[in-house]
Design brief:
The chain is of the alpha+beta class. The chain has 2 domains: 144 residues, Fructose-1,6-Bisphosphatase, Chain A, domain 1, CATH 3.30.540; 95 residues, D-Maltodextrin-Binding Protein, domain 2, CATH 3.40.190.80. 31% of the residues lie in helices and 32% in strands. Strands 3-4-5-6-7-8-9 form a 7-stranded mixed sheet, with helices on both faces. The longest helix is centred in the first third of the chain and has 25 residues.
């Protein structure tokens, strides 16, 4: 299957998972706790089951590494090529009734994300991109290409974590930069806002997981942005435990 078809597969599954999540939200749900005390809901499990089944049926040769399966002790060896799935990025926000949660699907090849799809279900949006092949956004008005923007003369729009926005490292990181506003929301939606050119910068200092970043990174890089560790080096994939330390998502230089 060519990369265009793989992206369409990921985008379709992200969209369908988002619809399933919204259906569970409308019906009501309970909130449980994982071993690390982070929240989990029926929406996480239903979305992951839908995505994993779809990926394995269409691409049986490509391993799938998915957040809830890893929590349950099911983690295939990454190999040279593998899918990374976060079925509900921003479960805390979803459980609290906020809109900023996402579905992330990324394909890693040779240690780098090469394509990805991110759905933002509460806003009816799906973002997709192939590194080197461009990025797009799909919503009620259809699908259109997206690109990052150059830094605007009035100053940068900075995305920050809703739950970690008061981290003192953010102020130190932004010192000396022309900042117009800081927007604090949850989930990988922040990366998508940089990719579409409505924001310019998103530094993240806390721990994330590779399934949090693979899909969004591919979308942003496909849109002309960059996604690196805090020291400017590439974010590695296939790490033991799949844990990331920090990253910076940037738009146009």
């Amino acid at each position: 299957m060519e990369d265009d078809a793989l992206l369409e597969l990921a985008a379709r599954l992200a969209r369908e998972a988002g619809q399933a999540i919204m259906g569970i939200r409308a019906a009501g749900f309970a909130v449980g706790r994982k071993t690390d005390r982070s929240p989990v809901t029926a929406a996480d499990h239903a979305a992951e089951a839908l995505i994993v089944e779809g990926l394995r049926a269409a691409t049986p040769q490509i391993p799938v590494i998915a957040e809830e399966e890893v929590e349950a002790g099911l983690a295939p060896a990454p190999g040279r090529e593998y899918w990374l799935v976060d079925p509900l990025d921003g479960t805390r926000d979803f459980a609290a009734g906020r809109e900023h949660f996402a579905v992330n699907i990324g394909l890693v090849r040779g240690g780098r994300p090469v394509l990805g799809a991110v759905a933002v279900p509460a806003r009816g949006e799906v973002f997709g991109g192939i590194v080197g092949g461009g990025a797009w956004k799909e919503d009620a008005s259809g699908r259109r290409p997206i690109v990052v923007r150059p830094p605007p003369p009035e100053g940068l729009t900075v995305m920050a974590s809703f739950h970690h926005g008061d981290d003192p490292r953010l102020a130190r990181f932004l010192a000396g930069l022309p900042v117009r506003e800081i927007i604090r929301i949850g989930s990988a939606e922040k990366v998508c806002r940089v990719a579409e050119g409505s924001a310019d910068l998103y530094p993240r200092f806390g721990t994330t997981m590779e399934w949090d970043t693979a899909g969004p990174e591919a979308v942003l890089v496909a849109a002309g942005g960059s996604f690196t560790r805090l020291d400017g080096t590439p974010l590695p994939y296939g790490k033991p435990g799949f844990r990331n330390d920090g990253f910076v998502a940037r738009g146009g230089r």
